[in-house]
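@channel anyone free to eyeball this complex?
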Amino acid sequence: MKETKGAKITIGDNTFHLPILESTEGPNVIDIRKLYAETGHFTFDPGFTSTASCESSITFIDGIEGQLLYRGYSIEELANKSNFLEVSYLLLYGNLPNQEELDDFTGRITRHTMLHEQMTNFFRGFRRDAHPMAIICGVQGAMSSFYHDSVDISDSWQREVASVRMIAKLPTIVAWAYKYSQGQPFIYPQNSLDYSSNFLRMCFAVPAEEYEVNPILSEAMDRIFILHADHEQNASTSTVRLASSSGANPFACIAAGIACLWGPAHGGANEACLQMLRQIQTVDRIPEFIKRAKDNQDPFRLMGFGHRVYKNFDPRSSVMKESADEVLNLLGIENNPTLQVAKELERIALEDEYFIEKKLYPNVDFYSGIILDAMGFPTSMFTPIFALARTVGWISQWKEMISHPDNKIGRPRQLYLGSGYRPFKPLNQR
Ligand code: SDX
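replying in thread with the prediction:
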């Protein structure tokens, strides 16, 4: 990492020099690691709008250009030319695999897709109408109680085994959470199927009859996984990094990431977005909702719109929109009313001064729900599918952090506005 001449900060009569560290892509950073020791001041940045929490070589987003790179490869090319396990290898190990590497990785993932049979009891402890995110969060965390041979993060072999186990088992956990909510028996993984086909079969097959995976749907599923795989230091990835910084085991850290992703401002937006599109129902009601979204007094927001980083279009949304058109056409439901409302809502919003001025564009969650709905998933399954895909990103970021020589526990400070010392007052004097 190159250091340039640096920045100067003047506080009172004192001037301090802070080094500037150069990135290979995107903004450089002002290195403030010694700021408090030298100036007695903290920086203040709630929501981390101007803060780089770490150095990373995995994913890069250019929010102005609408660019998303996984290890330097564009999301558009990966979504159209690669597949999820190949992209997972790329995120985990830094380069696209050759045939031998891909076969070995695919084989390792395939042979770890089953859960310990006793874990089925965890599902049965939940109410049938439990939100699947509650179930996958619980079952994921419980994995650390079954796989003791891969919780020691100081052992690179155990880190590798834990990584493969989670990438392999999340589809089974997510599919079984769905089956449990439907009152249907669990369908076990089939090693003869590819990753996405295996997931769809575990979700939609029943023991009573043969189930053929529709290749249109497995291809769409695989593309959705690729689009959601990683995204720099988003809220859930930062949660995984912070949890991991204490040395917690990887299964618990990924469970923390799942919990954070659940929120409607983050991964929960895809579920909230489809509910919003259904609430709008018809194109003629769109202006009423646009008006509400623009009213600062109204907490309503256009779900699936806006992004902390993308201030132009979200490239994932563009790919997802093409995929929605293609899948619904191939399924013969191109006149899906929800898709029509979504397209008209996007058109109107992108011409509206408010959205233009605030640089609000559809994000990854705007169209994903329409495809998942067309595939037969209930809205409650949208965020679990996001979590399934993002697991490889969380793990890639976790591995990068754990193996960094300067890895230390994350411990932010604060701007304290509370009371200074005051002596305790006995009850009869209050
Ligand atoms: C994901 O970080 C990531 O990379 C996340 C993600 C990933 O892959 O990990 O990309 C996945 O989480 C995508 C985002 C999904 N969330 C939603 O679609 C929920 C709706 N969007 C908003 O809640 C919001 O846009 C956020 C949370 C996504 C971004 O919030 P910011 O960057 O903190 O922006 P903000 O909330 O401060 O908004 C800036 C302004 C505000 O107006 P003012 O206070 O300046 O007057 O824009 C307005 C907001 O009121 N605004 C919206 C809006 N989003 C922002 N107004 C109406 N509708 C919206 N959707």
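from a first look: Residues 156-182 form the longest helix (27 residues).
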